[in-house]
Amino acid sequence: MAPDRSVDAVVVGAGFAGLYMLYRLRQLGLSAQVFETGTGVGGTWFWNRYPGARCDVESLQYSFSFSEELQQEWEWTERYPAQSEILRYLDHVADRFDLRRDISFDTRVTSAIYDDAAKVWRVETDGGTTITARFCIMATGALSAARQPDIRGLDSFAGKWFHTGRWPHETIDFTGQRVAVIGTGSSGIQTIPVVAKQAAHLTVFQRTPNFSIPAWNGKLDAAHQEAWKADYAAHRVSARDTRSGILYEYSQRAAFDVTAEEREAEFERRWARGGANFVHSFNDIFVDRAANDVAAEYVRQRIRALVTDPMVAARLSPTDHAIGTKRICVDTDYFQTYNRDNVTLVDVRATPIVEVTPSGIRTTEAEYALDSIIFATGYDAVTGALGRIDIRGRDGIALKEQWATGPRSYLGVAVAGFPNLFVITGPGSPSVLTNVVVAIEQHVAWTADCLAEIARRGAATIEATPDAQEQWVAHVNEVADRTLFPSTNSWYMGANIPGKSRVFLPYVGGFGNYSRICDEVVSDGYRGFRFE
Ligand code: NAP
User: Fold this and answer.
1) CATH number for the segment(s) 5-145+381-531
2) Which of 62, 304, 346, 410 is the most buried (most CB within 10 A)?
């Protein structure tokens, strides 16, 4: 079929990644079309409107650095930004840089097929549009493909049900209702305390308890914001040199280099400061089980002190995984919520959910009458959004088939056999282990520079070589195997999706190291890539 239109680049997604990619494409003088499923910009932050939704990276760091004017003019109001504030920020970015005119909203890309003869990507949408582009850039997000578990009987439920990652736009008021939350990851842990205050009764269906550190969120001190902004560029440079792209206090000490009292004092200090900084209390928490155990036990001790009923405290205490190997949660009054009279915790590992009935949820032990069910059951992470698009490279090979035994990429941004395809924060890059805005800016900038290089060389395409890709995949796995991460059934490992291969998805070698490798690849004449 003849395409409706032809552009230099198609970008899929208008979240942080798609917006900045569009900005950079325009700077290169390239024509671009962005497709976005939502009716507005924001990506993950457009959809995650559930009560309590908030980022657990601090506002001043979870923001774009590419424009000095932007970072100076935007005023953050809280230490950790609420979803609504991030969305306002992204709306501001879209307006300020006049980005909307190249974005088609309410449009899902269904396929992207490479035409080897014409050397273009043929992209189709659910609206029936076909567009061709030399470059296809996937800015589809690592945590955007919401996962709804297949529970028998959900269709028969007479009440309403929601997924945290696909929250409706109208205000949902749970006042007076009997509400269930299924899932106790970051989303569940944020929404449970807020819903508990509204609902007549809240029943939490927990399969695996999680480690969570208090956020101690609050209004952002104006003087602090001003001082930070006075030195913004320097803060950004320092952040980019860290392991996770966030200015945490990364300890240089091992847990057993200090006395038990010093260890305890360090955990106390970090707990009092709040946030994910806690898992960096010592530099061996992610690699040494004994070091990890002492940090984990400190949190369990805190849970026991916060939760009045010892049985409930025990149920809320994680014992099946090393702290940090599932994404650490950051909360406001999470554990204390279980002291409320209107909150019940059900352990669905002990008494699994059998079905949803018209009036509620039935486990192997009891039936719970409900008006609403909230699924906080997570995502088909990192590869899920790509898997929902029919992406085919040279010779019609499907990305999904090529990745059936685990994703294979070069630097997490390019895939052998898929010329001129770029994946922003793809598998095999630091992505979800970092401040994702920092990771996005680095990938987008790298991609933009690469497009400029293609033009300079007068090349038609760039493609990762199979050898470079295999070496990178081996390196990603080798680095992961030096840590405790693969010991845990987490979404980092694809373990939350039935049938998904068990591979550690992100690159754990550290953001600073990773971006140095990317720069070296460039200074080495795009080592591992082939221009045609
Ligand atoms: P998640 O971490 O994958 O948690 C999903 C929860 O649902 C888990 O407790 C899981 O239990 C449970 N679950 C899944 N299927 C179930 C079933 N059939 N029956 C019972 N329980 C089930 O998902 P998430 O909480 O949405 O968070 C995903 C990631 O998004 C986070 O790790 C974080 O990176 C990001 N996020 C960040 C923030 C923030 O910045 N504060 C907020 C929200 C999300 P199991 O553990 O047993 O599988």
Assistant:
1) 3.50.50.60
2) 410
